[in-house]
Protein: Alpha,alpha-trehalase
Amino acid sequence: MNAANPSQALEHAFAVLRENDRGTYTVPTKGLYPFQWNWDSCLTALGLAELDEDRAWTEIETLFAHQWPDGMIPHIVFHVPSDTYFPGPNVWGTNRPTPTSGITQPAVAGFAAKRLFDRAKDKAMAAARCRALLPKIDAWHRWFYENRDPHGEGLVAILHPWEAGRDNSVDWDEALAQVPTTGFAPYTRRDTDHANPAHRPTKAQYDAYMWLVEHFRALGWDNSRLHDASPFQVIDPAFNAILIRACTDLAALADELGEAEIAARNSAWAQRALPALDTLWSAESGRYLARNRVTDKLIDSQSIGGLLPVFAPIPAARCHAIAEHVQGLLKVLNYIVPSHDIGTAGFEPQRYWRGPVWLVTNYMIADGLRNASELAVADRIARSSLELITKSGFAEYYDPKTGEPLGGGRFTWTAAMVIEFLR
Ligand code: 9WN
Structure:
């Protein structure tokens, strides 16, 4: 396949989407991830819309059909049994009618719904589908600010690295070191059956992941208790920026559809959060930094989590600094944007979220830069993304130095992002 030949790349991307389509939802890739994942599905819907708008709306609706009574959208929905992934439904023990995990993931649904609506050829269908989704997405946003920002500072915390979607980012190392790694049931990982263990999180990280799951399960997955009871509470600038963008987009969509209350509420959340997000800016690093809410200290880690806030409506000067930083990375790397900066503590070119390039984060950074009129860098990120799939196919992630494919193969959201970059 050749990205110089976009129609071939597009056909290949559509084939990956079809292959991972389970009728009303897609799996990220077969074997490694045999269920529905939250932010994968919302971003994948953008690619699906190029094939079938109705099917794209269904992807998001299926996810929201499994919303918890308190408003949370879980990070995994276990539609059908499979033993190729750990931890499965019995380990989570959430007692939902259709089993789900008990934590959430980045809130991209509001952004995805607006983008689908704006582009819809069938506007009447899009309006009807959006009207039904709006209160559900609104309830999820409310859930975040009520349960993950108990002191009303405008920023929400993640309670588990899996919630960030950047599981083993260097950003979490310090906070994760405070999580016990003993006192949970023995377990067998399945991810390393499908992907090279050297490209995945370590055993020590999985031990901490499992301790947190068992701790929250013992608290009955009661979200009114989990935040304060968690030894891991991290304010991730990327996670917050995605939520701010989703609130902003949902407000605009609600406004267009005449849902004034939802519009006002979401706009107010975004307006309160933006100055709070700005307190995480580090002039020295030229990026935002995560904050450990338990110690109240900023986390000095040079990761993509500090660049992703460009996806939100942050000040132009911050966008420009991020654009320059991304551009500068091309002096030392062949492919951008690495999930962690080369030459800084913790960088590993092949280990998951500690260095490799991911097309979903590329897409969100490029989108934010485009909105800020930083077009040259946005185009350069798109080019790098297409070079990677040309060289190495539709992988889960890629080595930023060599472009080597890493993790799972024939990956759904990678394909969806290629469709987006080729638009
Ligand atoms: C845990 C599905 C998911 C993505 C995450 C990515 C990875 C899961 C795992 O795969 O996480 O949720 O088991 O490794 O980190 O971003 O949503 O593609």
Remarks:
- The pocket of 9WN is lined by residues 28, 33, 37, 39-40, 75, 162, 165, 167, 191 (CB under 6 Å).
- The chain has one domain: 6-421.
